[in-house]
Write a structure and sequence with these properties.
3 strands, three-stranded parallel beta sheet, Rossmann fold
């Protein structure tokens, strides 16, 4: 009989390392069903808000983009479609999610790496994306965790 996966969040909130362990294990466990779960829990709306997010980004000839907490790569692939001459990196801490993203990847300008978002924000930009600029945000860095600020919770224009 297969062993049941048990991971209690309350046992992992004491410090950053145990939180990281919890996050990695949790997403590693759900990785094979992640896309299905996301679509079910969002009633299929996830695809629409991802397209909306990308449509709100400015036009650039060849930007450098980082998708933080990229999961299975949906946003990185949409970025590659919008910016075919850009360089896009998906960054995540869960290798099984990255494995799925790599298998799905058909874009030559997209790479995926196992890295904590915090290290990217501290200047640990993957070598593939390094441009020599002091501030990597000059190229525009997109993080999945920043979507609320970009898309907002409603579609009404802000005044």
């Amino acid at each position: 009989m297969p062993r049941r996966f048990v991971l209690k969040i309350g046992d992992h909130l004491e410090n950053a390392e145990t939180k990281k362990y919890y996050t990695e294990r949790n997403f590693a466990e759900v990785a094979p069903q992640y896309d299905f779960i996301t679509r079910v829990l969002s009633f299929g709306r996830d695809a629409a808000w991802k397209r909306t997010l990308i449509s709100l980004l400015p036009s650039h000839e060849s930007p450098v983009c980082v998708d933080l907490a990229c999961g299975t790569g949906d946003i990185a692939f949409l970025l590659a479609g919008k910016y075919p001459r850009g360089r896009i990196a998906g960054v995540d801490i869960t290798e099984p999610m990255l494995d799925i993203a790599r298998q799905r990847n058909t874009h030559p300008n997209v790479t995926f790496s196992n890295q904590r978002s915090k290290t990217v924000r501290r200047g640990g930009i993957p070598r593939f994306l390094q441009t020599g600029r002091k501030d990597p945000t000059e190229d525009g860095i997109l993080g999945s965790e920043d979507m609320d600020r970009t898309v907002g919770h409603n579609s009404a224009p802000q005044s």
